[in-house]
Amino acid sequence: MFLRSALGEGPNVLAFCLCFILGWACVATAQDTADDLFSDLDDIESGAGETPGTAPALGEGEQEQLTPEEVLDQADALLQEGKYLEAIGRYSALLNYRQFSNNVRALVGRGKAFAELKDYDLALKSFDRAIGASGMGGANPFALNERGKIYLEIEKFNEAVLDFAKAVEAFPTQTEFLKNYGKALIKQGAKESQLGDLEAAANVPKGLGALSTVISKLSGLLENPEFADRQEQIEAELSEAYFERGIGQLLMRDTANALADLENARERAPENLEYSDRLAAGYFQRAIEQGQLFPADPAELITNYTNAISTLEDTIEKAEAQEAKEEAGAENADADTDAEQASQPSRDQKPYDTQRIPGLYARIASARIELAKYMPTEERAEHYRVAIESCQKTLDREPQFGDAYLLLGTAYRMLHDYGKAIEAFSETVWLSGSNEAHFRRGIAYYYQNELGLALRDFRTIHDLRTGSKDSRAQFWAGIVHMKNQDYYDAIESFSNCISTNPRYVLAYTNRGTAYLKLGKYDRAIKDFNEIIRRQPSSSKGHQLREVVYQLKGSRN
Predict the structure, then answer these.
(1) φ, ψ for residue 432 (rounded to 5)?
(2) Eight-class DSSP state of 55
(3) How far apart are the C-alpha atoms of 501 and 471, rounded to whole Å?
(4) Closest CA to 422 of 399, 441, 406, 402
(5) What is the pLDDT of residue 333?
(6) In angstroms, rounded to a whole number, what is the distance separating the alpha carbons of residues 166 and 127?
(7) What are phi and psi of 462, to 5 degrees?
(8) Residue ranges of the domains in the chain?
């Protein structure tokens, strides 16, 4: 099995339930597997004494004989109602007869039901049979599409791409196939490029092209009066196409177009919290990119962080409403398994995972802290206080959420409450040993004049991959030594910082100042010249060099 069954105890429970639904005389033992109950998936057994044109009565108390088409209609209806076990029973009863064993409709329907129950192994076996049983002169494109969706679910993106490509080739006008093909190309390209296959990265723009074609076709259908009765279905498919294209554009760092697509998806399907979640992430990514520009545009940064916060707040409100509804439903639920299944959305419209709510609050805290940097001084404290409240809400739900303590400590530090900041950073250190927590706690210790503890934290930090020293920690160690007037140690720390990161201009400033304190004027001038070379528009280097010239009593 790729994954355990969603019914609690895996395949044995699935097998046990189906024994009753099918009315089989034998009851599965604890050693039975789900495969034992679906012999048609491996070896086809004939149905002795049955005529080709009829199927047995399948429901308890049914007396009449049903035609195969009627059995399939009933099974399809059960699948639509979310009664997946009953649907599997009816499909399987038909498939267990030799004359119906290769019925593609039954195989695909049963595969869909297994997929809804997250029994992906049996779902794949059903779809494999459907693809092999096709009498169309080639693989059935609908079965290929459904199998490709399973491969996407279990992150076998190469296999998904191949299935969707064949489905598109067989039925090029089917927008769902092309949409899934584009989605799979983007996921496969992103994954393989991360593993070092740079050629695979070309699949991302290829996937974007496929999704653009889908969007164009579906937009045309929305305007076509002949499809007026399918508007809701088209809108749902169109919103997903915009969403997937937006995700691909984020991967390509085309955040402006990505945000436009993600906003479009959310506008068309405001109830889809996954769309809102990713839109908020897009706003945050856009703000970070803008902050790296020089000079940054504060107004645009403020807009994007504000949009991220409002989108996250809306997502939390809806997610908590969903959570409350789920909890109320659980309390009122009876023992009817079918009723429980009927309340589950299909895998094409997944419920939002409410366990992500703590992370949403933490992201609000992070956005508030970043936003405060660009706000007027008198408004910053309020953002830090709201960030603290958001962190507390995260920790109320998940007390060991390390990043929430890290953000909590940062907000307290910005409010100059260093004692509480140290407590919060210490929790993160205890939970994860985070370098970042050590670093930020060291700064808080510095401002509390606990210089020995600050140095201890800064010396703890190193690159986990290479073992090399962290440039920021070395810089701050130098600042501590400067405050202690240990200028030789300060010079060593700033030199380590520069060795790790030669572009760390403040390290040249402070090392030059340390040389100046020791009367090493030529070395101080060399560092200040480096500042001028690296930041020619800044007056700082010129001013410091002028001080040294005056102390030397001569000008070079």
Answers:
(1) -135, -10
(2) B
(3) 6
(4) 441
(5) 56
(6) 14
(7) -155, 160
(8) 1-133, 137-269
143-160 pLDDT per residue, tens = 999 999 999 999 999 999
From 525, 517, 521, 520, select the one nearest 545 (Cα to Cα). Answer: 525
CA–CA separation, 147 vs 164, rounded Å? 9
Answer for the pair 498, 514: CB distance below 8 angstroms, yes or no: no
Measured at the CA of 343, the angle between CA 341 and CA 346, to 5 degrees, comes to 75
Question: What are φ and ψ of residue 376, in 5° steps?
Answer: -55, 145
Report d(CA 422, CA 8) in Å as an integer. Answer: 43
CATH of 137-269, one of 3.40.1000.10, 1.10.1670.10, 1.10.357.10, 1.25.40.10: 1.25.40.10
Contact 246, 207 (CB under 8 A): no
pLDDT-derived band of residue 196, with 50, 70 and 90 as boundaries?
confident
Q: How far is CA 363 from CA 258, 314, 417, in A?
A: 20, 13, 22
pLDDT tens for each residue of 440-496 = 999 999 999 999 999 999 999 987 666 788 999 999 999 999 999 999 999 999 999
Pair 211, 179: CB distance under 8 Å? yes
- Tokens 């495969």, residue? 35
Domain 1-133: CATH superfamily, name plus number: Tetratricopeptide repeat domain (1.25.40.10)
**Same CATH fold, 137-269 and 1-133?**
yes
pLDDT tens for each residue of 497-528: 999 999 999 999 999 999 999 999 999 999 99
Per-residue confidence at 117, pLDDT binned at 50, 70, 90?
Answer: very high
Residue 231 tokens read as 């508007």
Average per-residue pLDDT for the chain: 86
351 HSE (CA, 13 A, CB side): 14
- Residue at token pair 């490509």: 165
CA of residue 414 relative to chain centroid, distance: 30
Burial 459-488 (b: 16+ CB within 10 A, else e): ebbeeeeeeebbbbbbbbbbbbbbeeebbe
Residues 454/476, Cβ–Cβ less than 8 Å: yes
How far apart (Å, rounded) are the C-alpha atoms in residues 394 and 446? 28
What CA–CA distance (Å, rounded) separates 111 from 13?
A: 18
**For residues 154 and 159, what is the distance between their CA atoms, to the nearest angstrom?**
10
